[in-house]
Amino acid sequence: MEPVHTSLERLRSELHQSPVCLLVRFRSIRLINCRRSLVSFKYALVRKTLVCKKESRCCPNLAVIDPMQLTIGRAGGVMGFSCTFCNNWIDIEKILLHINFADIFIHRELRELWNRLRKERPELLANFEDFLFRVSTHIRDVHHEKETLEQALKRKETDHGREVRSLYEEMEQQIKIERERLQRKDSTRQQDRQTTLQRELLRKEQELEGIVLRQRQLENQLHSLNSEQLETRVQNDRLRQLNEDLIEQLERTKTNLGKAQANLMNLRKQEQEEQECKKRDAYKVSQNIQKEKQSLLRQLELLRDINKKLRDEKDVFEAKKLDNLKKNPAVPMLCVQFAH
């Protein structure tokens, strides 16, 4: 779908209006389609009422509408009303139904506002009715312009679709011609390519045979590796069992070693106790020997003293004997005889 500015550019020559005017009309159509709220409508009415209060003294029948609230530059008198127009709301509904806009403006709050103005400010009722019908007329004109623009857009879309189809058919024809030209041009090239492909196919078949041979060799190697792996697994199981047996034997050896170490410690303890006992006995024996030695030494000293005393006595006796012999020589002979 084309953008709005492109559509406006295409419609400018057909509708003989400036792009600014067309853009304003499009914005007015969007505002009407959005159906302005009752708050905006009341705001416009209040602005119109304030302006009418200022100008009622000099121009009582002039109805001024704010340009920002859908102002229409129509001359006075088009759908205008005097101060005595429409005594009840039903007349306004009939007129709005006649111009096909009663579904927009027939509203409970709007009716209450009309009744309030009629009761409290009857001098503003004509301005309100005039403003209401001016807006209705503007909406009707905008709808008419909207329909005109929509029809123009539909015509443009139809023309655009026709042009697109024509361009598409022309493009298809050109593609077909180009395809035929390329097919004729590529006929000889295709034969050369077929020959090249046959050569390439033969080379690929040779490579495939080499690959198959290599695959068989690899399968044989794989079979050998599987056999070796099986033998290795069996050997590993045997070594694992041997390792477990050695570990169990090591545990038993450790247990026996612990017991032997305990026995050795007991034997060392007993030997140490025996050595200590022997040391005590040897000490006692040495003490006894020392005592006996001292006793023997005392006895030896005593014997030495006795021996010395006896020697002294013997020497004294010999001395006396010699003295006696010197004095009486016959006495020794008697003694000798007596001894015999």
The assembly state of the depicted protein chains is single chain
Kindly name the structural category: mainly alpha
Low-confidence stretches: 27-86, 98-105
Query: From N to C, what is the helix and strand string?
Result: HHHHHHHH
**Helix count from the secondary structure assignment:** 8
Helix content: over 70%
CA-based shape: elongated
Cα(first) to Cα(last) distance is 187 Å
Question: How would a textbook summarize the main sheet?
Answer: none
Radius of gyration over alpha carbons?
76 Å
Written account of the structure:
- Residues 139-320 form a coiled coil.
- Keywords: Coiled coil.
- This protein is mainly α and 340 residues long.
- The protein has a domain at 4-174.
- 84% of the residues lie in helices and 0% in strands.
- The chain is built from eight helices and no strands.
- The chain is elongated and about 210 Å long.
- Mean pLDDT is 72; it is low at 27-86 and 98-105.
Keywords:
coiled coil, 340 residues, single chain, 8 helices
Summarize the topology:
Elements: H1 4-15, H2 19-34, H3 38-55, H4 89-98, H5 102-105, H6 108-120, H7 125-327, H8 330-339
Short description:
The protein contains eight helices and no strands. It has helices at 4-15, 19-34, 38-55, 89-98, 102-105, 108-120, 125-327, 330-339.
